[in-house]
């Protein structure tokens, strides 16, 4: 999702706000401040309605953030990395690095979100009672009650046994535990998700026809559920086809490590030859700084070659989707959200090589219905070998490490 605003980090997890959140905040503020609050509690100054509705909208966003943070923190506890949490129009998304290793971990990661929403609902219900006991302002009481009911609704809705909702992931964990088949369990969960989505769309349409515009929200949520379920179904089918294929089996562009402080001229004047690999630009302490296409060396102006270093020319690691060498392709594809990026494969901090977008597209097209398929552990080229480029090392005087063996 593009067009996001960074909100900082919690426990090392990046938090960001999608631009569409402005739409839901604006809608809630408008509906509460202009219609619902004045109708329910007439007689207050207009400015207080707008203050109360703004507070309700912001507290709702905080509630959604707590829900997603719960997923992320439990995922971290179970050994999964978390790239980021993005809040957007219909809630939030915690981007995990990979998938749960066991049904038990899947169950805990999925179940904690609704649990936290239920706790937050209870906090707002308690706040409603305390405010009423203290005879606080009516607007404060009704906003607390509204948020309690809304968080309770979020909890109940997310517990529905339909992917991509948390209840769908709980269903997947249960089926996975009973059958031992992760991806077949995922397919069952996506079927229930599609069914729920179509029911929401149909119910919203009936509501629009009979009661007015209130049903548009149900139709919008239903459309999102249908689309997300279809995407997860595609991913599950791909996962079944890929099996245990590792991402380093798909490396088609090898890497050659070079010191980052070498000048372009030093490299070009050496006996180093371009064998089709990319350059892994490494500091003297072994830290990988970036990747560099050797063709860019020749594109450097002659008068700059002696003063420009490889580190200056290298593309930073942030330009790539990174993956561990022994990670499964399915796990990597679960977070591969930018088809323009190459996947940089790392083995304990050392660059193994790149999987370009064209290779990902080729493998996916082969493994979808009608494709030729790919044997787990086999080379994409079909030669039965490692599938890794094995470049010749440059001269010893600048080589930072040991050559990776097949």
UniProtKB/TrEMBL annotation:
**What are the recorded Gene Ontology BP terms?**
proteolysis
Tell me which residues this entry annotates as catalytic: 68
Q: Cofactor: bound how, per the entry note?
A: Binds 1 zinc ion per subunit.
What's in the GO CC field? plasma membrane
Q: Where does Zn(2+) bind?
A: 67, 71, 166
Location within or outside the cell? Cell membrane
Kindly list the residue ranges recorded as spanning the membrane.
17-36, 48-67, 107-132, 138-165, 186-209
Protein name from the UniProt record: Zinc metalloprotease
User: What is the phylogenetic placement of the source species in the record?
Assistant: Bacteria, Bacillati, Actinomycetota, Actinomycetes, Actinopolysporales
């Amino acid at each position: 999702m593009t067009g996001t605003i960074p909100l900082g980090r919690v426990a090392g997890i990046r938090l960001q706000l999608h631009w569409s959140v402005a739409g839901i905040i604006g809608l809630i503020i408008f509906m509460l401040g202009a219609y619902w609050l004045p109708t329910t509690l007439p007689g207050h100054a207009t400015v207080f309605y707008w203050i109360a509705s703004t507070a309700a909208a912001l507290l709702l966003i905080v509630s959604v953030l707590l829900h997603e943070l719960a997923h992320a923190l439990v995922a971290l506890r179970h050994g999964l990395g978390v790239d980021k949490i993005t809040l957007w129009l219909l809630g939030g998304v915690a981007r995990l690095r990979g998938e749960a290793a066991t049904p038990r971990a899947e169950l805990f990661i999925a179940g904690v979100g609704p649990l936290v929403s239920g706790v937050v609902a209870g906090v707002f219900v308690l706040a409603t009672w305390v405010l009423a006991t203290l005879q606080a302002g009516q607007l404060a009481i009704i906003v607390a009650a509204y948020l309690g009911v809304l968080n309770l609704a979020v909890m109940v809705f997310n517990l529905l046994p339909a992917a991509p909702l948390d209840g769908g992931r709980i269903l997947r964990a249960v089926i996975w535990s009973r059958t031992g088949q992760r991806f077949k369990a995922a397919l069952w969960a996506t079927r229930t998700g599609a069914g729920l989505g179509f029911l929401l769309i149909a119910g919203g349409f009936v509501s629009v026809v009979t009661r007015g515009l209130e049903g548009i929200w149900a139709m919008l949520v239903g459309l999102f559920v249908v689309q997300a379920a279809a995407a997860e179904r595609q991913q599950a089918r791909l996962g079944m086809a890929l099996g245990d294929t590792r991402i380093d089996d798909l490396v088609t562009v090898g890497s050659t490590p070079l010191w980052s402080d070498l000048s372009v001229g030093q490299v070009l004047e050496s006996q180093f030859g371009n064998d089709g690999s990319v350059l892994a630009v490494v500091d003297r302490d072994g830290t990988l700084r970036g990747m560099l296409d050797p063709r860019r060396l020749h594109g450097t102006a002659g008068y700059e070659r002696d003063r420009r270093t490889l580190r200056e020319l290298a593309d930073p690691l942030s330009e790539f989707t990174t993956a561990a060498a022994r990670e499964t392709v399915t796990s990597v594809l679960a977070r591969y959200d930018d088809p323009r990026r190459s996947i940089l494969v790392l083995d304990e901090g050392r660059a193994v090589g790149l999987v370009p977008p064209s290779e990902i597209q080729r493998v996916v097209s082969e493994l979808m219905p009608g494709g030729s398929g790919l044997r787990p552990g086999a080379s994409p080229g079909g030669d039965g070998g490692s599938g890794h480029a094995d470049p010749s090392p440059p001269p010893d005087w600048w080589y930072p490490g040991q050559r990776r063996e097949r």
